[in-house]
Design brief:
The chain has 2 helices and 5 strands. It is α+β, with helices and mostly antiparallel strands and 122 residues long. The protein has a 5-stranded antiparallel beta sheet.
Length: 122
């Protein structure tokens, strides 16, 4: 569970964790993660961002004291998929600006893999 010292007051995703987000965008949250609809640049018909409720800048900043948040990301993805009747989806993250990370708060993209979706293929 996040504590005030776990958040960065200047981080847009930390502000979301503190409630500064349109509640209609939220698709899931618990004590460890917040998941919300990607509205800025969706890559698929169903595109959700899942973020830990602690300010971790990227995968390169995961350490033993914060790594437990990652299991909650994947547990949330499974719950979101089940609630939305999605059986085919991708969950991924980007680390660093050259990889396409645009917000310095660890976040995972969850996108549907429906036949008609246009998604990034790696």
């Amino acid at each position: 569970m996040n504590r005030p010292e776990d958040l960065d007051k200047d981080c847009v995703f930390c502000k979301f964790i503190n409630g500064m987000i349109d509640r209609k965008r939220i698709v899931y949250q618990d004590d460890y993660v917040l998941a919300f609809k990607e509205e800025k640049a969706p890559m698929a018909a169903f595109h959700v961002l899942i973020i830990p409720k602690a300010h971790i800048e990227s995968v390169s900043k995961i350490i033993s004291s914060n790594s437990y948040y990652i299991k909650f990301v994947y547990e949330a993805a499974a719950k979101i998929a089940k609630a939305n009747l999605i059986d085919s989806y991708s969950v991924f993250t980007r680390t660093g600006a050259h990889a396409g990370q645009t917000v310095s708060h660890l976040h995972y993209h969850m996108i549907s893999n429906f036949q008609d979706d246009c998604i990034l293929r790696v």
